[in-house]
Amino acid sequence: MQKLSIADVKSLLEKVQTEDELLLFREDSRKGVAKLVVATEKRLEKQKKLQEQFEEMKAYELFYREQGYLQIAGVDEVGRGPLAGPVVAAAVILKEDFELLGMNDSKQLSEAKRLFYSEEIKKQAVSYGIGVVSHEVIDEINIYEATKCAMKEALDQLSVIPDYTIIDAMPLGHFENECSIIKGDAKSISIAAASILAKVERDRMMCEFAELYPGYDFQNNMGYGTKKHLEGLEKRGPCPIHRVSFAPVKSFFV
């Protein structure tokens, strides 16, 4: 081991995947190697925690597969609370051996990670679908019913008919076999995947709307009622994608 340079040791440690592989490096008395070993231990511990979290989030999918269901769709939505823009839902059927460590509720991830995970989910999924319901429909039938419509549309876009559906928070009744899970985007890997796809798609749409309707900071607030958004609303009044049934937007139409 002493014949290896610190740079060589670093290169080898970057490939280490188990604690057992560290044993040989622990025999090296150099301080530089000791620091690299500690850094590798931290990396392995983080990897272990991510693996454990991922296995926990597969529990629902595993349970329903044990009941004989093979095509399990996770469903989630993004955009119930904003003052402007559509509500967007996604449905995703993942392969049984799907693995993408670090996945979580889309709100817990950075934009860069969401974009990365979104592409990987699309590559690895058995099928996925996106449902979009406009602000006009939201105003017409209310946000709860509009959310259900977006979820049903996302499910109908799947190229494979699911035999079980796992939905975040609300019952849907679109297929016979389903369950709703409170905070499901943090408990089910399929729902988490759906939340990421829905979030990325809606953010993309809101950035496009920001170019069409400047002055509301849509590219940063995605339609939520932030200070800049409310200042823009006060100064300019509602734009064509604002939800007129939502306060304070509706006060402009009294």
Give a brief outline of the structure.
This protein is an alpha/beta fold and 254 residues long. It is 47% helix and 12% strand. It has 10 helices and 5 strands.
Topology readout:
Elements: H1 6-13, H2 23-26, H3 31-57, H4 59-66, E1 72-78, E2 87-93, H5 111-124, E3 127-133, H6 135-141, H7 143-156, E4 164-168, E5 178-181, H8 189-212, H9 218-221, H10 227-236
Parallel strand pairs: 1-4, 4-5
Antiparallel strand pairs: 1-2, 2-3
Helix pairs in contact: 1-3, 5-8, 6-7
What order do the strands of the largest sheet run in, or round the barrel if closed?
Answer: 3-2-1-4-5
The residue fraction in helices comes out at: 40-55%
Order of helices and strands: HHHHEEHEHHEEHHH
How far is the N terminus from the C terminus?
79 Å
User: Percent of residues in beta strands?
Assistant: 5-15%
Low-confidence stretches: none
Largest beta sheet, briefly?
Answer: 5 strands, mixed
Mean pLDDT: 93
- The computed structural class is alpha/beta
What is the number of helices?
Answer: 10
CA radius of gyration: 23 Å
Name the shape in a single word: flat
Key features?
single chain; about 250 residues; alpha/beta; five-stranded mixed sheet; 5 strands; flat
What this model shows, in words?
Helix content is 47%, strand content 12%. The radius of gyration is 23 Å and the shape is flat. A hairpin with an 8-residue loop joins β1 and β2 (87-93). It is of the alpha/beta class and 254 residues long. It has a 5-stranded mixed sheet with strand order 3-2-1-4-5. The model has no long low-confidence stretch (mean pLDDT 93). α1 runs parallel beside α3 (31-57). The chain is built from 10 helices and 5 strands.
